[in-house]
Design goal:
Elements: H1 2-14, E1 18-22, H2 24-27, H3 41-44, H4 50-55, H5 57-75, H6 81-91, E2 97-100, H7 106-109, E3 117-119, E4 122-129, E5 135-137, H8 138-146, E6 160-164, H9 173-183, E7 188-192, H10 204-210, E8 214-218, E9 231-233, H11 237-251
Parallel strand pairs: 1-2, 1-7, 2-3, 7-8, 8-9
Antiparallel strand pairs: 4-5, 4-6
Helix pairs in contact: 1-11, 6-11, 9-10
Length: 254
């Protein structure tokens, strides 16, 4: 394990474009359950598909109930050792871009600036109108719900929805395009806490490998890239990333 950490740190220090890609596994250590785990949101709710949200007020009410449940859990959570370790890599000047499947905004709260974060599935704390595309903060939507509107609407009459990708909804084109371009041009790519099964996000490591990037997988369960990556670590994200960041700090030139 020590040699793996040292090798990863050396690659980070000597690489020109370091990309870190995160999935739900990094945020579970902050107490945020993922969708697939027992007791997670899929256990308690049937997912509301995008076309259901757009055509049925009843489904919009159910959707908002699910989102409010998630956000109540999110309010109690904060960045963990894994988030803070990636932020430390950024502070030291080694992180080019953070690509995430997560919608919780914890990477920004850890100190990584918005411009360095690509959110492939959106951000639950940002609310968007499905008609005029205006955005409002989550707190304003909460206020509308507390005042008696269980499926809030925009001033223009459009449906308000957390700015996240629902089942059956298209991926954000610009974010996906940027993620593909950066993954295809990096020389170091590290996957943290993702099973790499949801496309097109799961394809990013493959784009990096086509560029001959050094690929690291840090995940507790199997991924499709395990057999082809350069280093595989089956450990918790937080303690692993903390060790990597510490080794980078020791290895970095003064």
């Amino acid at each position: 394990m020590d040699k793996k950490i040292e090798r990863i740190a050396n690659k980070i220090v000597t690489s020109k474009k370091v990309i870190v890609f995160t999935g739900a596994g990094i945020s579970t250590e902050s107490g945020i359950s993922d969708y697939r785990s027992k007791g997670g949101i899929w256990d308690r709710y049937r997912p509301v598909y995008f076309d259901e949200f757009m055509t049925s007020r009843e489904h919009r009410i159910k959707y908002w109930q699910e989102k409010m449940d998630f956000n109540r859990a999110l309010d109690k959570a904060g960045p963990n050792k894994g988030h803070l370790a990636i932020a430390k890599l950024n502070e030291m000047g080694f992180l080019h871009t953070l690509i995430t499947q997560n919608i919780d905004g914890l990477h920004q709260r850890s100190g990584i600036p918005d411009e360095k974060v690509i959110e492939l599935h959106g951000n639950t704390r940002r609310i968007r109108c499905m008609t005029c595309s205006a955005t409002i903060p989550l707190e304003l939507a909460w206020k509308m719900i507390d005042e008696g509107d269980p499926a809030p609407e925009c001033q223009c009459g459009g449906f308000l929805k957390p700015d996240t990708v629902s089942f059956g909804q298209s991926m954000p084109e610009e974010s996906t395009k940027r993620a593909v371009e950066l993954s295809s041009s990096c020389d170091f790519f590290m996957v943290v806490g993702s099973t790499l099964v949801v496309q097109p996000a799961s394809l990013m490591p493959q784009y990096a490998q086509k560029r001959c990037a050094f690929l690291v997988i840090v995940n507790l369960s199997d991924t499709p890239c395990d057999s082809s990556c350069d280093i595989l670590i089956r450990e918790e994200a937080g303690k692993t990333l903390e060790r990597i960041a510490g080794e980078v700090e020791k290895s970095a030139p003064c």
